[in-house]
Each structure stands twice: as C-alpha cells, then as structure tokens.
Amino acid sequence: MTALPAALLARLIRPFRPLPAPVHIQVFATLVNNMGGIAKLFLPLFFLEHFQLGYGRIGLLMGLYGAGCVAGAYLGGQLSDRFDARRLCALLLAGSGLSTFMLALPWQAGAYAPLLLVAGLCDGGFRPGNMRLVLEPCPPALRLTAQGYYRVAFNLGVSLAGLTGGLLASLGYHWVFVAQGSANLLACVWLVWAYRRWPATAGARAGAPSASPALATTSPWRDGPFLVFILGQLIIMAAFDQIYGTFSLFLREHYHASPSLVGMLFTLNGLMVVGLQVAIAHRVGRWGLIRSAQLGVLLTGGAYAFLNLGHGAFFAMITMVVLTVGELLLSPTWSALVMQHSEGRRRGSYLGLFNAAWSGRTLYAPALGTWVYGALGPALLWWSCVLLALLTMALHAYALPRMRSAAAPQQ
Hints:
Keywords: Cell membrane, Membrane, Transmembrane, Transmembrane helix, Transport. The chain is mostly helical. It has two domains: 23-198, MFS general substrate transporter like domains (Growth Hormone, Chain: A), CATH 1.20.1250; 218-411, MFS general substrate transporter like domains (Growth Hormone, Chain: A), CATH 1.20.1250. Helices cover 79% and strands 0% of the residues. It contains 16 helices and no strands. Helix 5 (85-103) packs antiparallel against helix 6 and helix 7 (140-171) runs antiparallel to helix 8 (173-197). It starts with a helix and ends in a 6-residue tail after the last helix.
C-alpha cells in the first residue's frame, strides 16, 4: 500500500530534481511568505467594522497599498541591478513583516495610510528580485519548469492562507496581521539561514558583468518592442482582472449564484494551478513560447464570451476553466520571454517594469470594469474582454518575435 504513494511522490518531484539549489531556496521562501498573504483581503472589512469608514476612504487606503506595490515592483527591480538580490529580498521581507505587524497595533485610522504604503512598497519590491533568483540560476531549458514550480508554491501558499485566514479573522483581525507578519519574517529568516548554509550554491549575484557592454546600458524605456509588449500586457490584464470583481458581481446578480458556488469556482482555479502549472510549463517549450503566449492571451479574454452564450453554473465553470488555462499559459511564457530578452541587459529593470505592469492592473482594471458593467451592461463588458484579447494579440504579434530576435546570445 505504501509503494503507490511513494511512486506517485517520486513522479511529482522528478521534474524539479535538475533545478539548482537556489531555486528551491527561493521557492520555499515564496511558499512561506504567501502562507500569510491573506491579510490584505481582510483590511476593507477591518476598516469598515473597526473604524466605520466610508467606502471612499477605504478605497483610498487600499489604493495606497496598491500604489506601493506598483512602485515597489519597479524600484525593487532596479535595485536588484545595483545590489545583491539575495540580501535585498531578505531586507524587503523583513520590512514587509514589520510593517504588517504594526497593522495589528491600536492606531488611529489615518496612521494606517503610511503603514499600507510601506507594506505595499516592500511586498511589490520583493517580487522582481524573487523571480530573478528563481529563474536566473537556471539554464534556459529549465526556466519554464522553474517558473511552474514557483507558481505552484505561490498559489499553494495563498490557498493555505485562505484556509486559516477566515478562522483567525473570527478571533480578531489583528491575529490575521500577526500571522502574515510572522510568515514574512519566517521567510526572511529562512533566506538568511539558507544562503549561509549553502553559500557555494547561493546563485548569481545581481550586477554580474553583462554579455555585451552596449546591451548592459539598455533601458527598458528605450526598448520599443518591449514597451509594446508591456502595453499589450496592460491591456489584457484589464480583462483578466475582471475575474476578481465584475465576474463575482455578475454571478450573484444574473446567475443568482450562492457565495459557496463563487468560492468553489475560485477553489477550482487554485486546484488547476497547483495541479497543472508545472506540466503545462514543461510542455510550453515544445509548443513554442510565442505560440503559447498568444494562445494564453486569446483564452484569457475569450473565456468571458461563454457568459454571453448561455445561463447557469455550467457556463460560469467553463469560463473559469478556460480563463485558468490562459493564466497557466501566460505566466511561464511571459516570464521566459522577458528573461531571454533581458539577457545581458539591465535585467532587474526589465523584471521591475514587467512586475509593475502585472501589479498595476489593480489600479485601473476594477474601476474600468465596474464602470462598463454599470453603464453599458455585462454583455458588452464580456465582448469587450474578447476585443482586448485580439488587440493584445495584434500588439504582441509585432513585439514578441522582435524580442526573441533581439535577445542577447546565451552564455
């Protein structure tokens, strides 16, 4: 009876064995860090119930956190070009943990504004360095597997946090903040200990000599194809992010879906990511990066068309499944394309802008989606998502081949 689980476990971990030790160090830090990442979801309820703040002021406070994430992602990428990304990630995790711990203290409502801004800067700043340290030590052939591994750890951590977050919130919101701060600091301690324990395999330091001095001075802001790629990313992210706002609103108002059904759909999303991400990332190399990226964009925007084709839980489930497959394709392909294109360039700056654009959707997508939903109706919103996908595919048809051809030679 024990042979079957052992064989299954061996099969599950087989794709990860060739990955360098630094990848495992960062992936475990990602898992621990995200196990406490549910606190920000409870902040609006905390401000509403504890301070009786209006919705406008709550939105402003949460907007400060979102703006901090965007600015932190961009600045964190740039700093990883100047300083050791390993130490930078540990420092940002410590900052995130301390600022989150301070949210649990009895402050006046206005005092939370700078705390949320600092927490956002630290959370956003950690991501590009974290991604860099996961992907950079790998040879190009293993980067897709490493990205899938990273995504599984990220989503598994969030799923575990979701299981405990509701229980802790029922005991008091301050316990949610304490739990997240503890997870941040534990991830920081793990990084410091692990890189001291395995210094010989700690991975490449940021600021290593570039393959080409001319490319090393290239700024992403002067890189036309990359900027067109980022523009397409911003456009399709506006469609993707509707899953966290107008999609749930639509299910409640038009499908009369229960909260449990909405929760089950998001559970399905998480299970698909954990169960399929590595397998899909492993096969993307054979399917082709550009072809897989374009298919991912089409599925991401096109998934919403199913909501206009029928009525009921079946169409909601099909929408979530198709959207999740698009997400599973986009995450590894985009990361691999940016890593290839930034080879020998200011990689941290490229990853910083890429991550800032990814996080930046929270600043415009919810407001844009709810406005279209309320003013023009959900049917037009869902068809608009399909059009956004087609527009992004047209932009990326120009940008992605040029990014591939302009990539520096691999060393």
